[in-house]
Design goal:
- The protein is an alpha+beta fold and about 250 residues long.
- It has five helices and twelve strands.
- The protein has helices at about 20-25, 70-75, 80-90, 165-190, 190-200; strands spanning about 10-15, 35-40, 60-65, 100, 105-110, 110-125, 125-135, 205-210, 215-225, 230-235, 235-240, 245.
- The chain has a seven-stranded mixed beta sheet with strand order 1-2-3-7-6-5-4, with helices on both faces.
- α3 packs across α4 (about 165-190) and α4 (about 165-190) crosses α5.
- The protein is globular.
- The relative contact order is 0.15.
Length: about 250
């Protein structure tokens, strides 16, 4: 933990775990402070929609778990805070011009997926706790066949004589950047977070395809609304998408 580590935030480091998200769920009820959980190895890492998430040695697997004292909708907005924080942290190692944020929960590096975000929560209208899981390909890009966005890694975009940051080095930066996003949310509101995310969004103003569990919708990516939903301009008019996989 560096001197830049955010005040009032705890850190738990583990050699191995099934997943940092599962560990966060187990520990959440007894935690008294926001806590990052980082593991050197995961045996059952997972991403969105139950997909597996590979974790080669040298990559980051971490989860921030905390009690946000907010509604479920406000909790879901934290995905955009995490994406902005990831963009800022990655910019310390690769040019920001090579990075883009892909709705709803990915970060692209030169069009390859370098990081993903997963949210899980407990509670009803008001959340008891929220977990933000983050995986970043720092040293290695997992091999995933037929991926719509092939994985890439930070190391692949560095000069040959430069090593990729260690997971803890990266987490020190990421934790500080995320704390800054929470401060912005508290002082300026979600509209500010949303505007920053849109300024970094992949394919804004271009035609994309969103595949939901029931439909495939193709249209021009116009906006992300105040609830964090994708807004597409289609031949039938504007359509709002709450959850989908996006393809370019």
């Amino acid at each position: 933990m560096s001197t830049d580590w955010p005040t009032g935030v705890d850190l738990i480091e583990l050699d191995q775990v099934d997943s940092t998200m599962a560990e966060a769920a187990r520990r959440a009820p007894s935690l008294t402070s926001p806590t990052w959980i980082r593991a050197d190895a995961q045996s059952a890492g997972r991403g969105r929609s139950g997909r597996s998430w590979g974790h080669p040695t040298g990559n980051l697997a971490a989860t921030l778990v905390f009690k946000p004292h907010c509604s479920a909708q406000q909790g879901a907005q934290r995905s955009f805070l995490a994406a902005n924080a990831l963009f800022d942290a990655l910019s310390a190692f690769v040019p920001a011009s090579k990075l883009a944020l892909k709705w709803p929960n990915d970060v692209l590096l030169s069009r390859g997926k370098v990081a993903g975000i997963l949210l899980e929560a407990s509670g009803g209208a008001q959340l008891n706790w929220l977990s933000i899981g983050i995986g970043v390909n720092l040293a290695h890009a997992p091999v995933i066949e037929d991926a719509a966005f092939g994985p890439t890694a930070v190391a692949l975009h560095l000069d040959t004589q430069v090593e990729a940051p260690t997971p803890m080095t990266f987490l020190n930066i990421l934790a500080a950047k995320y704390a800054s996003q929470e401060a912005l949310l508290a002082t300026k509101g979600f509209d500010h977070i949303r505007a920053l995310w849109l300024s970094r969004a992949a394919r804004l103003g271009e035609v994309i395809t969103a595949r939901t569990s029931r439909d495939t919708i193709t249209g021009t990516f116009r906006d992300v609304d105040a609830e964090g939903n994708l807004v597409l301009e289609t031949p039938k008019g504007r359509e709002t998408v709450t959850a989908a996989d996006v393809y370019f």
